[in-house]
Amino acid sequence: QLQLVESGGGLVQPGGSLRLSCAASGFTLDRHVIGWFRQAPGKEREGVTCISRSGGTTNYADSVKGRFTISRDNAKNMVYLQMNSLKPEDTAIYYCAAYRTIQTMCNISRGRYDSWGQGTQVTVSS
User: Rounded to 5 degrees, what are φ and ψ at 57?
Assistant: First the structure.
């Protein structure tokens, strides 16, 4: 299975931006859908966004549409999450995850993913 490592989290003021990175190893990245999930204290892990194998299709949770952008660079085995206009409710541990597929679209449901990173903390506060 893929190994995934997130980085780039930190403390940012409301309205600010962060760029998270997910480094993948173990298998060819372009055979996998990649998703970003987040989990706040006391809440279940929720899907944020996903990106298809080639990057041609993306899906976003309503709460982040227009503010977050997922992208991937398969040649570098990297996936990114650009987060703009951050809100306090975006505070959570953010995880990248993957599943292998032959399809050209992505699924944001948590149960579909079988490889997970360790998470990186994002805190949005003044």
Answer: -130, 135
Question: Which amino acid appears at position 39 of this protein?
Answer: Q
pLDDT at 28: 81
Residues of the chain with pLDDT under 50: none
pLDDT at 1: 65
Inter-CA distances, 72 with 45, 53, 90, 107, Å: 22, 9, 22, 16
Per-residue DSSP letter, 1? -
Neighbours of 113 (CB within 10 A): 22
CB–CB of 88/40 below 8 Å?
no
Contact 109, 59 (CB under 8 A): no
> For residues 84 and 98, what is the distance between their CA atoms, to the nearest angstrom?
23
Say if residue 36 is exposed, middle or buried (CB neighbours under 10 Å; 0-12, 13-18, 19+): buried
